[in-house]
Amino acid sequence: MPSPEYRSARFTLAWPALLATVLLLIVLLGAYTLIESRRLQRELSRELTDRAAALIDILEASSQNAISSNALLEEAVAQRLLDNARFIDFFVARSPRAQELLQRVVTENRLAKVELLDPEGHPIPPSRLEASSGPGRRGPGAAESPAHPPGFPSPGQHPRAMMGWMMGPPPGSEPQAPEDRRMPGVPFMWGHRWGTVRGGPASGFPSLPANAKIRRFWEGSAFGVAIPAQSFTGIIAVHADAGYLLNFRKEIGVQRLIEDLGRQSGVAAVALLDRDLTVLASSDAAAVGRKEEDAFLREAWQAGTVQGRRRSLTDGREVYEAVKPFALEAKRVGLVRLDLGTESLAGVSRQAQRGILFYSLGLLVVGVGGAVAIFWMQARHLAERRMLEAAVAREQRLSAVGNLAAGVAHEIRNPLNAISIGLQRLRKEFAPSPSEGRDEYLRFTEIMHAEVGRLNTIVDQFLTLARPARLTLTEEPLVAVLEELLALLSSQAAAQKIRVVTDLALGEAKVRMDRQP
């Protein structure tokens, strides 16, 4: 059992430093947990931003491709209608059978309708063109033009042959060069011009008025082109049912792309906003046309890069909102706002934070356990050291007392020896006769001798303090030991008028003892 000094050293020395160490560990691990949690949040936010940026880039590229595809398709349809309009102008309107040929062109080329209009926009009946047609003649108010422009089939050819020229060479034949099919002198829309036939411009073609231009237009689900006519003074408008073009635009348009993206897993909402922050397209149809008033969106427009933040929706869900300017042909036209759900990443974040917390708690437990063990061992070592120091000091004090006792015993033993010798001579040489009180004399000398023995025993005890006793155990008869003790105590008992009665029937009983004084 530890001594009081050991217990005092252990609790007094260990606990203050141990508590300070534990508090330091808690502070350090708490700071580590906080820093690691914030780093994790930054990593998750960066992950959301990168994902949102990638989705916005995909949406931007897909939108550009969709718009380009729609423009190419519209260009192809417009080119086909222009070919039909020019065919009608140069061959059908010049033919004596204009009405019949016009009907066949509409039917076989699957056109919605063809309109021949005067400069005021009034319809011109094909029969009127037939009445005014003939060699070297044009429609009402038209200038003279050659009956057969070079590089084109003559009006007398079969309509199928003429339509075959318009639509392309027959299968297996050598493709005609593009410039061979270009009409002379007709200005094309958006700055392009319809070039001349190979070999130079055809002579005799009248020039168009300066304000005459080719136009494209939409009329409901019909798409059409209008050109100034060469065969008569007026306009030829060719219409085609463009429902498939509208369906194509709807299938690959920006709204469809946004709706498809909005149905992706983890995407809460997608919206396209214009410069005024008005919603042009959205995965939520109810939001289209709504104007947003948000300083964050304006800052994102000014920044020109992906900006992100966390916000709560009206239904209480938390989303990560990423906003990036939307560009077409390297020109910013609006903003794309993408809301990503945070449920999956929130689960990952909670799991990672639990891992960080458990890791920190484990480190704390191990650190506290190690600190307790270290301080306990240190306190034990210090307590043992203090015990040894106390024992050494006690031994030093005992040694000093022993040295003093040895000196005192030496000084006392000399007169005691003289007294003991004198008493022995008095008992033997100077004892009185029985008549003079011999018994009383002997009794007193015996008492004096016994007291001298007691003083000698005290001296021996002082000497024992001076040198540590070493036990030398031997087996001695118990009866003999008790008899010696009784003999030593008999004088004291007699002095106290105590009568000692003994009955030492112990047989051969023995006791282990050291007989040395």
Question: How is the topology of this model organized?
Answer:
Layout: H1 4-92, H2 98-108, E1 113-117, H3 126-132, H4 159-167, E2 215-219, E3 222-228, E4 235-241, H5 243-252, H6 254-262, E5 267-273, E6 279-282, H7 295-303, E7 307-312, E8 318-328, E9 331-341, H8 343-429, H9 438-466, E10 474-477, H10 478-495, E11 510-513
Antiparallel strand pairs: 1-4, 2-3, 3-4, 5-6, 5-9, 7-8, 8-9, 10-11
Helix pairs in contact: 1-4, 1-5, 1-6, 1-8, 8-9
Describe this structure in words.
The chain is built from 10 helices and 11 strands. The chain has helices at 4-92, 98-108, 126-132, 159-167, 243-252, 254-262, 295-303, 343-429, 438-466, 478-495; strands spanning 113-117, 215-219, 222-228, 235-241, 267-273, 279-282, 307-312, 318-328, 331-341, 474-477, 510-513. The strands form 3 sheets. The protein has a 5-stranded antiparallel sheet with strand order 6-5-9-8-7, sandwiched between helices. Strands 1-4-3-2 form a 4-stranded antiparallel sheet, with helices on one face. A two-stranded antiparallel ribbon has the order 10-11. Helix 1 runs antiparallel to helix 4. The longest helix has 89 residues, at 4-92. It is rod-shaped. Mean pLDDT is 72; it is low at 4-11 and 134-210.
